[in-house]
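Students often ask why we bother predicting the structure of a whole assembly rather than each chain alone. The short answer is interfaces. A chain on its own may look different once its partners are present, and contacts between molecules only exist in the joint model. In this exercise we take two input lines together and write out one structure for the complete complex. Read the inputs first and try to guess which parts will touch.
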Amino acid sequence: MGIDPADGFDPGAIDPNGFDLDELERDALTELGNIGVGRASTALSRMIGGPVEISVPMVSLVPGDRVSGLLRSAMPGELIAVTEGLSGAFLGSAILLMPERSGLPLAAAALPPGVPKEDAAELVEEALAEVGNIVLNSCLSSMGNLLGVAVGTTLPQVLRGAGDGLLERCGVTLTAEAQAILFHVTFRTPPHDVEGTVVLALDAGSAVELKAAIGRYIGRVLA
Amino acid sequence: MSKTVIVVDDSKLSRMHVRGIILRNKPDWTVIEAANSAELYGKLDESDIHIAIIDFNMPGDNGLEAAARLLQAKPDIRVAIITANAQDSVVSGIRALGAAFMPKPLEEEQMVRFLAAASLPRRPSSNDAAGGGAG
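Now the answer. The structure tokens for the assembled complex follow.
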């Protein structure tokens, strides 16, 4: 497939606050992300009625105060965010972020054929919300099932902007104590390249809970 | 008779998982591992491999590309491709190679069925050793 992961992501980033995963825990989280993104691509492909190529997700663990810098280097400029609040086992936000230029082609691909041009414009936000909802829920539900925890989400909101302001509106806590997990993955929907990053922003307590859940998952897999 | 299986996956945890399933059910078989397609190609001539279980979404050549190249070099190898990506294009690509489609997350029962089928001599008409797995 040969889709290069974005520059600027450091999968080996060490959290100065001591929240870190060992090699096997990180591998397990990457595999959970891989399964989630695989499921999401299947759903997305049905929705747009054509193949979707996905890159191998790169996983980074990032303290809240470094999220926007990292995202800026990976996806500079204006972004579109489809965000959902998390409830249940983990508290925080799940966000599908994409560069502004990915929005229209992705929405156009997701709309059913035969939508009149004059209606298409107002349906863009709705289509993006639906795509985001499918991608985020495919990821979260397969991860939740494998981890044996229930993850709930609120309805998707589509926001536009850049940097800290956008992340704060998505409900991301930009402090060093909070923890974000970035699954950087490229979706390619020929003829367009649509890029997206799935961000799971967890509050500090949830990050610790996630680590525990990953430990139990590894135990079950290797039982 | 004892078989040699190569497990190709960039996730070490996944490789451990598959290895565990194989050895639980076929204790006398040999399992070797490759972390990506390049490693698979490098290990092809090292031992007499009968069965390959290959992850789809990997850095470098994906599982389909790897399986195609593998079957070109060694047409008798039985192949299963494991993937959470069940798009029509992926599933039909797997079928076209005569490989077995195995959804992720992996179900032990399905893997056991594939191993059993792969132990038998190849039936000329069969192109999916594991039976219908596409769901």
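Check your guess against this: Confidence is low (pLDDT under 50) at residues 1-16 of chain A.
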